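Q: I have 512 residues here and want to know how they pack in 3D. Can you give me a structure?
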Amino acid sequence: MHRLYYSICMHCRFNFETLGFWFPWSLVLLVVAAVLFTYISLLLVLAVCLLSEGQRLYLHWSHKMGIVVTLAFAVSATAVLSEVWSKEWKTLLLSLQVTAPFLHVGGVLFLTLLSWPIALHFFRMNKRVHQVCLLGVYLGVFFSLYLVPLAMYSPCIREAGTLGPKPTLLGHRGAPMLAPENTLMSFESAVEAGVDGLETDITISADGVPFVMHDLTLQRTTNVEEVFPNRTHTPAALFTWSDVQQLNAGAWFLSWDPFGTVSSLSPEQRALAANQTVPSLAEVLGVANRTGRTVLFDLRQPPPGHPYRDNYLNITLDLIHTHINSSQVLWLPSDQRGEIQQVDPELQQTAGQTASIQELQDNHITSLNLHYSTMSLQHISKYRSVNISVNLYVVNQPWLYSLAWCSGASSVTTNNMLLRDIHTPLLLVTPEQYSVMWVLTDLVSAALIVCIFIFHWWRERGLHFWSGSRQTHKTGPYSKFRTELSDVWSISSGNVRTELRTPSTLHTITEE
């Protein structure tokens, strides 16, 4: 549920950053999808129930239109989500590495339950060819599902004692679930929550002051519309530092409550959040230096025409030398990396994309900052073998954090401070434990299916014996079932008529 809610929050955030206003349209999609697919599921259950009783489901035209609408909605929603969140489809593949063993158990259970109507239908079919086709398809699907674990891979299926150290946490823009993002309150909250590093984004003001801001404009996280109504869409880098200091950077958090966490704040915390301003890089470095945390920041080059477009790196570097030890900074900007390395070799040179080990070593790269979708046990192990650590962003879900842990990531950038409470990866099993779970599931399922088929064979044979007559199959695959019921009714009716005639007959005999 937390995963679903976080997804909704991220969709709302995207909507706000793109369109400038908040509307939970993803929540609307989820509600509509839930209603439509519940409707389809009910029709499916009804069809299976009727099938188990030897009848067919005849749909009204309105239900047929409902199915068409549901299919059209599913296709359209999938296309839209693929366009907007194309990277997130990789999350599905990653989730299979954690959930596939349990999805396998669920799939086997579903097909085992499905064997009941399949067996009933099988023994009531008239033609041997149809029986062979039905049983062949069913068993083919089932045996394929039985063997799926042979192709499964999960870094969390590993020998005991081979798990690496727990990944450390970098607060993504501080602790945005506990305080307005990219504010001093947010960074200090992250430190209090126990993170090992701080991640942020830096923009250079029009008068050469590096300050904290993620978006290209100030609209989303400040009250720039009120203070500078004519400059709402002006790039943040074109504001002077004195202009930026006039803005409130916390009231929006209380109003929009992007993560649904405002209610958990105390009155004092809400008052503090309501008065947050945009911090400078110097202030953030001061927090990191005072608390011994590392700092990872993305430095945006000023736009063309900006007075500090050409020397923004030197301005930032001078600020680092003044406020923090260089070894605490993970230097992410790739421009002029060689010159920066010569000027300050203590900086932890960090690359934002993968490359060959030789290329990374030539550029003195000591760490990689990668999107979690690139997660790979083989690649991470290869980099760590030459002392290149890997940080993954943005990891918020316990299952994803567990996967990062099993894959050997050194750290993760996160919004979720509760990840610190995870002390062992979720779903961590040894190969022996997984094999036992797999084999037992398949054996129990196979035994149940055999029992179900035997039961229906015995039941159908019993009905045939009870009917006491040879059956003719002229009305389709369910004629046997219908004939048997009519025979039973005929027998019952005959018995009733016999019983009704019996008193009069006895009376006649008595009179004679």
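Q: Anything worth noting?
A: The chain has 18 helices and nine strands. Strands lie at 168-172, 197-204, 210-212, 294-299, 329-331, 348-351, 367-371, 389-393, 411-414.
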